[in-house]
Amino acid sequence: MIAIVGAGAIGQMWAYKLGADNCVFLDTRPNGTSKTINITVQDQQVTNELTVRQHNLQTLKETKLYIEAVLICTKSHAACSTAHALDTNLLKAIPFVLFQNGMGSQHEIVEGIQHRPIYAASTTSGANIEKPNRLVLAGEGTTHCGPLNKHASQHDDWPSSLAKISSHADYKHNIKSTLQRKLLINCGINAFTAIENCSNGQIRSTQSFQQYWPSLIDELSGLSNIYKLELTKTDIVEMILSVCETTAANISSTLQDVRQGKKTEINDINGFAAKQLIASGLSATTNTMLTERVNALRN
Predict the structure, then answer these.
(1) What local confidence, expressed as pLDDT, does residue 91 receive?
(2) What is the pLDDT of residues 251-283, one digit of tens each?
(3) Using CA atoms, how far apart are residues 156 and 172, in angstroms rounded to an integer?
(4) Of 60-64, 285-289, 295-299, where does mean pLDDT reach its minimum?
(5) CB 200 within 8 A of CB 192
(6) What average pLDDT does range 131-151 have in this prediction?
(7) pTM, full prediction
(8) Which of 29, 96, 169, 276 is the Cys-Cys partner for 143 at CB 3.0 to 4.6 Å?
(9) How far is residue 299's CA from residue 295's CA, in Å, rounded to a whole number?
(10) Burial of 26 (0-12, 13-18, 19+ CB in 10 A)
(11) What pLDDT score was predicted for residue 249?
C-alpha cells in the first residue's frame, strides 16, 4: 500500500493513478482526521469517481497496513515538518518520495533525515482542484523519479518498494539535474503569473516580464553554472518559453495559491535560487525582488 500525504491536486492525481486499492491518504497533523474522501475526477472527456480512505498516524498503526512507500505531496513549506513527523512514526526502511516545487524543502529534508531512502519526483502532468473534491486533469505529462540520498542510491533501478509507481514514472538516477532544470523553469514562470494574475502563456506580454526578464535570465544563467548544467542563456530562454507555450492555458500552482489566499512555494523557488546565488557571491537582485513581490500579495 502506498501512503499519500497531502490531498491537494498532486496527491489526488496520484491517488487516481494508483487506484483506491493501492493507496491511502495520510493526515500527519497532530489533530489529523480519519475519514473517507470521495473525489470526482475529470480526465479529459471522461468523469470518474474515486473513493480513498484517509488515516491519521494513530489509525494507521491500528489498521496495521503494510506501507511500502510514502508520497509526500504537501506544499514545500509544509514538507519538512511532515517528513519529520513521518520519520518518527514509520519504519526507517520505508522510502519517502518528495513531490514539491522548487528545491529548498528537498535540500532541508535530506540534510535533516539521515537514515531513510529519500527520492524526489518531478512531473509535467497538470492538475487542479476546481472545487472541493473535484479534480481536473490538465493533461498527461512525464514524471521522473530518482534518488536524493545515499540510502536511495543503492538501487540502479526501481526498488521493489516503489513498484506500484514505476508504471507511472521514469526512473532517473541523476534526478538532481532534473530538479535543477525544473527550478530554472519555475523561477522563470511562476512569479510572473502570480504578480500579473495570468496564465503561463500570457506572461510574455506583461509589463513585469518585459522589465525583469533580461536580468532574471542573467541570474538563472549564473545558477545554471553553479549546478554545472552546461546551458547557455539561449538554452535557458528556449527551455522556459517552450514550457510557457506547451502549458499556455495552465494556471501555475503559485497563482492558484495566491487566488486562494494561501501561502505560496515562492520561497523555495525564486527565494531558494536567490540564496544559492548569494552563497556563490553572485547577484540575486531580481530573484529576491520577485520573491518579495509574490509574498506581498498575501498582505
Answers:
(1) 94
(2) 899 998 999 999 999 999 999 999 999 999 999
(3) 9
(4) 295-299
(5) no
(6) 89
(7) 0.91
(8) 169
(9) 8
(10) buried
(11) 87
**Residue that is written with C-alpha cell 552546461 in the block:** 230
Q: For residue range 145-171, what is the model confidence (pLDDT) as tens digits?
A: 999 999 998 877 888 889 999 989 999
User: Mind listing the domains of the chain with CATH numbers?
Assistant: 2-172 (3.40.50.720), 178-296 (1.10.1040.10)
Q: How many residues does the chain have?
A: 299
d(CA 102, CA 186): 7
The DSSP output letter for 34 is -
The model's pLDDT over 198-243, given as tens digits with 9 standing for 90+, comes to: 999 999 999 999 999 999 999 999 999 999 999 999 999 999 999 9
CA dist., res. 131 & res. 147, Å (int)? 34
Q: Cα–Cα distance between 47 and 41 in angstroms, integer?
A: 6
Nearest to 126 by CA among 13, 254, 4: 13
Give the span between the Cα atoms of 6 and 203, in whole angstroms.
29
Beta-sheet strands, E only, within the chain: 2-5, 23-27, 35-43, 46-56, 69-72, 96-98, 118-123, 126-131, 134-139, 143-147, 170-171
Cell of 71: 508520497
**Rounded CA gap, 218 and 84, in Å?**
36
CB 200 within 8 A of CB 244: yes
Phi, psi of 198 (to 5 degrees): -140, 165
CB count, 10 Å around CB of 100? Answer: 27
Give the model's pLDDT for residue 196.
98
Cross-strand bridge partners of residue 12: none
Tell me, what amino acid is at 276? Q
